[in-house]
Amino acid sequence: MVGVRIDLHTHSNESDGTDTPAELVATAVAAGLDAIAITDHDTTAGWAAAERAVHDLAEPGRFRLVPGAELSCACPDGNGRNITVHLLAYLFDPNSAALAQEQSRLRAERRERLYEMARHMAADGFPVDPDQIMVGLPPDSPGGRPHLARALVNAGTVVSVDEAFARYLGGSGRYYLPRTDTPVRRAIDMITEAGGATVLAHPFATARGPVVTADVVAELTGHGLAGIEIDHPDHDPATRVRLRGLAAELDLIPTGSSDYHGTNKTIRIGQETTPPDSLDRLMARCSGSKVIG
Ligand code: AMP
Ligand code: ZN
Ligand code: FE
Ligand code: FE
Asked: Which of 12, 71, 260, 274: disulfide with 46, CB 3.0–4.6 Å?
């Protein structure tokens, strides 16, 4: 269908976005989108409220919600090092025991890490209060560096979240702390076993840090990876051309998404979109949960 607009990567305040799940749905509808996926980092806590918001819409059947999550994974980069990659997971069973346990572990670790990063900054005299940052999070939310970045903006230390990352919180920043991410093959297995499908998020977003080689993408495809995100704000036109070639070569499902984070980023929801055929292909692979609406 021509004109159908689908955004398969968005965050609510259950992780590090600023919209509540219901606001996320409202924002998407107001932007004229036909479907979004809610893909919070390491949590499915936003699914229920987002689903209710879809059911409460004035025009039933006009808008669809794809339940999902974004998983931080450890992955060999193809050049002898281990890096973090993000895996988008769609339409899996959130009650799958292995997956729920791993996500719970990651959330606990993320909270502790956020607190420690804030504590180190406070100890060095930055005007941030670690306890206040944690109090602002929904219960059991993973939190993330953008929460600390926002606190630094509010305190006037930096003018933007981006500046906080560039100066203090990025991978080579003074206050960066690592996490124990899930090995990527294990994450693919867990999502597949939970009836879902996986898409490698922003695979060649070099501005964020080190990325994997094309050989690694091929290897993950052999392990069950279903798709790759091509149209993402952090991919320039040449990178998109390269990724389109790779998707065709490996028969990976191509997706496009904004990676919307509310006011934590300047990206608009629906700024990048996924071809309807790609969503159909993803849905055909999944049995763990259903598209809402
Ligand atoms: P964390 O989950 O704590 O590792 O933080 C990662 C999140 O921070 C990502 O999902 C992005 O939303 C955001 N982020 C990562 N790098 C940057 C950056 N350079 N500038 C702004 N936001 C970033
Ligand atoms: Zn994020
Ligand atoms: Fe990501
Ligand atoms: Fe994201």
From this structure: 12
